[in-house]
Amino acid sequence: RASSDGKPAKFQPPPKPVIIDKKKQRAERRFLSPEFIPPRGRTDPLKYYMERKDMIQRRKVFDIPEFYVGHVLAVTTADPYANNKSNRFVGICIQRGGKGLGATFVLRNVIEGQGVEICYELYSPRIHAIEVLKLEKRLDDNLMYLRDALPEYSTFDVNMKPESRLEHEEVPVNKLQVRMKPKPWSKRWERPKFNIKGIKFELPESKMQEAQKWSKPWLEFDMLREYDTSKIEEKIWREVNEELKK
Amino acid sequence: MMPIWTKSGKKHAVTLLKVQDCHVLRYVSKEESGGKTAKLLVGGKNVSPFSKPESAYQIFKEAGVPRKQKITTFNVTDDAIIKPGTPLYAAHFRPGQFVDVTAKTIGKGFQGVMKRWGFKGQPASHGQTKTHRRPGAISTNKASKVYRGKKMPGKMGNIYRTTYGLKVWRINTKHDIIYVNGCVPGHTNCLVKVKDSKLPTCKKYNTNPPFPTFFADGDEKLPEDLFDEEIFQFTDPSVTYT
């Protein structure tokens, strides 16, 4: 090849190959289930250690998938009063509560016009399977406001097919703003105490201003409420991973 | 407190009790103590020996044991006497036994009559003048005195109380932990006295305990965890109904 002025082109070295180490990328995404993190208190850490041993033991036998609030799950439990002795419920996870072995999650769905919420215990031996049907995080940690939202936001098809799992990529965040039923609601969701970002408030400006009267701007600077869990999380993450590999 | 599941899928709440450095301190014979049975003094939890004068821990020196935070007495028959200085472990109890647990309740300080004794008080409105949580009348006209033991405001809590008939679900021999059904008096990390149950309905479950106690240097090698038969162990597959 010759350049435009007739001289031979200067030697351009080929671009250096960029090696993307996929293993490193995978390791950077860490998920520690929130019930492993011990709450702040004066209990002996030995108690949390014994509970963690039991939780890991259960996870070795029964696979509990990684899920957040906003995922759509299908849970099969053993039911002595059902026909097949088993019961399958599909719903969106609106809340994850409890620490240790008593950790729970609440699934919500609207079946034949009736809203149904079931609170399952993660480590209960009656649970046979937990499948993640739809992966998406929402803007909030607590979707209790779906009770006062229009029912279309809580209905999910009972025979939904499981979505294919993205290979170790970020869990997508659904920035859906939910429309609500007319007031009164079960809780005053517009108040800053709940800090909800996933509702499209169609209230007049005066009501929104009045709700800001209950704001507590000093709360985020309160040093006594600080609970830095990063070091505890790392220790527990290492411990859990080592035990699960055995 | 922790949840525990049985093989039928039922959930029970369980308290964890840790046996921390328990040693037998002294044997008091029946004649010496003046009671119906012989007594054994047992000490719990090790504590620094420098906060009290040397005369205070004569018992511990005789037994050859570091200073303990609490000393309790157990009434013992003559065939269950143990030599002073032997350590006591959680394996002294077995799963399936029933147990009584004694401890000092959480202190609530000076409390009024509604919280302390559960009185109903008076209505909040309808003309009540400065009277909403008061005891009201304390005696009748004919008695013309207040009886001894009348329920009145005072210091509540911080007294010894016992819960009877608690089932032992599981024992961890490595960390000396007893998993006991239900709740136990006292705050978290408080010292607690655990005895075999005195209830007559629990006598048939307390057969064949390790007698007089479980000796760690003996021939018996126990596994790390001892479970009751009905407990769902997490190594088993999930519970199904047929």
From TrEMBL, chain A:
It holds the Pfam family Ribosomal_L19. It is found in: Mitochondrion. One of its GO terms (cellular component) is mitochondrial large ribosomal subunit. One of its GO terms (biological process) is translation. One of its GO terms (molecular function) is structural constituent of ribosome. Keywords: Mitochondrion, Ribonucleoprotein, Ribosomal protein, Transit peptide. Its main location: mitochondrion. InterPro entries: Ribosomal_bL19, Ribosomal_bL19_sf, Translation_prot_SH3-like_sf. Belongs to the bacterial ribosomal protein bL19 family. This is Large ribosomal subunit protein bL19m. The gene is Mrpl19.
Automatic annotation (TrEMBL), chain B:
Gene3D superfamilies: Translation factors. It comes from the Eukaryota. GO terms for cellular component: mitochondrial large ribosomal subunit. PANTHER family: 50S RIBOSOMAL PROTEIN L3, LARGE RIBOSOMAL SUBUNIT PROTEIN UL3M. GO terms for biological process: translation. This is Large ribosomal subunit protein uL3m. SUPFAM superfamilies: Translation proteins. InterPro entries: Ribosomal_uL3, Ribosomal_uL3_bac/org-type, Ribosomal_uL3_CS, Transl_B-barrel_sf. Belongs to the universal ribosomal protein uL3 family. Keywords: Mitochondrion, Ribonucleoprotein, Ribosomal protein, Transit peptide. GO terms for molecular function: structural constituent of ribosome. It is found in: Mitochondrion. Its main location: mitochondrion.
